Amino acid sequence: MPSLPWSKPTEPPSFPLSSSTTQLSDYVHDFSSQTGLPTFVLAFTLGGTSVLGSVVVYRRLFKRFRSSEWITPNHLAKRRWIKGRVVSVGDADNFRLYHTPGFGWSWPLKFRRVPSTPAAQKNETIHIRIAGADAPEAAHFGRPAQPYAREALDFLKSKVEGKKVYCQLIRRDQYGRVVAHVHLDPLLLPGSLFTGKPLALDMVRSGWATTYTQAGAEYGTWGKGHFLQLEEEAKSAKRGIWAKGTSGETPAEYKRRHAALAAGGKIPSVEKDVSPKAEEKGWLRRLFSRS
């Protein structure tokens, strides 16, 4: 009686190793033979190298800085670039950034999200001070706001609030903020390869900020001269804070005056009459004018 087909003993199927796996195995074996090192030592070394490489990639591309305290002096010394979303703008030259490293923050591969409530954002953002620009001061610590502080704040909000920006970290200032060169998200090209417009230059060009000239000023590759040139152009065109002329108190003068008053000095206000009537009068007319 012929044997039934299912009565024959079956052997487990064999799956050939892929060419890449075979090549790696042969490489390890050959290297072990040439160096005299045990195969398991080489395998352990390769595995450790792979793990180390993964850690480096994670720290460089995927580790999220939860706050300014997570940024080390080494990151600042290397002028590390980070990207993130601006979740709030408190003053006209600084904002809060939620760091969004790697991918997964936007469609079609969105599996991570930026918190939308102040409670969820607490202790999860980096306080960024925009390098190179000095905007009108808002009311703080009982001091009155400068003219155009509200308008300058609205301008910055229109540029960055709720949007992605790229920051090159520079240093930490006396208030614990991270000073950074800030670039807007490019419109067409990928942000991982290209950066958009420098935010500080846009602020100065539009007349909603002056050039920051105090200690520790940073101007990037553009240089101080380019900032000052854009400031002069804004003054000539009467843009932003220069709409009524150039005789008003700058943010730097405002801060120096209030610092002196806080120290006990009596520094008179340097605010001047910037009305068109005062600007039109020559020195002879002002001398004999009774008005």
UniProtKB/TrEMBL annotation:
User: Which GO molecular function annotations are given, in alphabetical order?
Assistant: endonuclease activity; hydrolase activity
Transmembrane annotation, as ranges: 37-58
Domain TNase-like residue range list: 80-244
A Pfam family this chain is assigned to: SNase
Output a single Gene Ontology CC term carried by this record: mitochondrion
How does it sit in the bilayer? Answer: Single-pass membrane protein
**Compartmental location:** Membrane; Mitochondrion
Leader sequence segment: none
Cross-referenced InterPro entries = SNase_OB-fold_sf, Staphylococal_nuclease_OB-fold
**Top-level taxon in the UniProt lineage:** Eukaryota
Major subcellular location class: membrane
Any idea which UniProt keywords this protein has?
A: Calcium, Endonuclease, Hydrolase, Membrane, Nuclease, Transmembrane, Transmembrane helix
Family to which this protein belongs = Belongs to the LCL3 family.
Protein name (Swiss-Prot/TrEMBL): TNase-like domain-containing protein
Q: Which organism is it from?
A: Pterulicium gracile
